[in-house]
Design brief:
Layout lengths: L10 E5 L8 H11 L3 E5 L12 H15 L2 E5 L21 H21 L4 E3 L10 H22 L3 E3 L10 H10 L6 E6 H7 L4 H8 L3 E6 L1 E3 L2 E5 L8 H10 L5 E4 L8 H15 L16
Parallel strand pairs: 1-2, 1-10, 2-3, 4-5, 5-6, 6-7, 7-10
Antiparallel strand pairs: 8-9
Helix pairs in contact: 1-9, 3-4, 6-7, 7-8
């Protein structure tokens, strides 16, 4: 009798940008206790500050802690004010000042080094919004040029650099990602961060179809609920997304890295939403496609 093949495994994480009221060690212990497979680690002042002294030593200590807890990691660079205390997500890869663009590229290079030391799946990044007075042609020239040093570092480290289409940013859609990829001659180090909520918000295809279309380039996934046309990250089940087909699609494209819950505006109740989110994801699985044992009270 032929044995049935094992289904692909999905691994779930929770973003530290949704746990900013917790010390990093407490956040990691919470996620491990809840049964998460990993963590989306946002480099920021309250957790792992990429600009503070002794980054390499702090990263080594974190690597040991992650190993002790059995957590994998993706490094995220979406901190709001880590580079500039007055400009949200500034400076960007599109800023008129080349020195400002270089500051963002340097942060990405630091993130690649952290990711290499942690054995991370990928480094997440984004384009930023189009600066006032910048035309589209200029922006399309700046973005590939500014991203190139970080791509070189990612190539050398063997860590994918996964750029995220973000509503309101210059690089906003999957079509924009493909235009960037082609402008850079499709480097192997350039991958895609797919945010499932963003697909619901503005992509022409349903989220599950977006996953299937993005499969070859998929290096990082963020997940939350959302409504069509409204860029607001909602707890799972509070929006319009049908999640079982999304998870089935992730398994079908053999996505093996982390699927990270992204609720940065819910840190005030982070532990509650971390527990609720994992239970929801386990209940939404079409069959057993999760890495860890489902927590008590959930079904899979």
């Amino acid at each position: 009798m032929n044995s049935q093949p094992h289904p692909p495994t999905l691994s779930f994480g929770y973003g530290t940008n949704g746990l900013t009221d917790l010390r990093l060690d407490d956040a990691l212990a919470l996620l491990a206790d809840l049964g998460y497979d990993g963590v989306g680690l946002t480099l920021d002042h309250m957790h792992l500050d990429p600009l503070a002294p002794d980054l390499a030593a702090r990263t080594r200590r974190l690597a040991r802690r992650l190993d002790d807890l059995g957590l994998t990691v993706t490094v995220e660079t979406g901190a709001r004010y880590v580079l500039d205390p007055r400009r949200k997500h500034g400076p960007t890869l599109l800023d008129p000042d080349p020195d400002d663009r270089a500051r963002r590229a340097d942060l990405l290079i630091r993130a690649v080094r952290v990711a290499a030391d942690l054995g991370a799946h990928a480094v997440h990044c984004f384009s930023g919004v189009t600066p006032p007075g910048t035309d589209e042609d200029t922006a399309w020239k700046r973005l590939p040029d500014a991203l190139a040093p970080a791509l070189d570092a990612a190539t050398a480290a063997g860590i994918p650099l996964a750029i995220e289409p973000e509503p309101g940013h210059f690089l906003a859609t999957l079509a924009d990602f493909h235009r960037l990829r082609e402008a850079l001659d499709s480097p192997a180090a350039l991958g895609l961060t797919l945010d499932i909520g963003h697909c619901q918000c503005l992509e022409p295809l349903p989220p599950a179809d977006c996953v299937r279309a993005a499969g070859p380039w998929l290096r990082h996934v963020q997940i939350e609920d959302m409504r069509r046309g409204v860029h607001e990250h909602l707890p799972l089940g509070d929006g319009e997304i049908d999640f079982p087909p999304v998870l089935e699609a992730l398994a079908a494209v053999d996505y093996r890295a982390l699927t990270v819950v992204e609720l940065p505006r819910h840190s005030h109740a982070g532990p509650h939403f971390a527990e609720r989110s994992l239970s929801f994801l386990h209940r939404s699985l079409p069959h057993r496609t999760t890495g860890r044992t489902a927590p008590p009270g959930s079904t899979s």
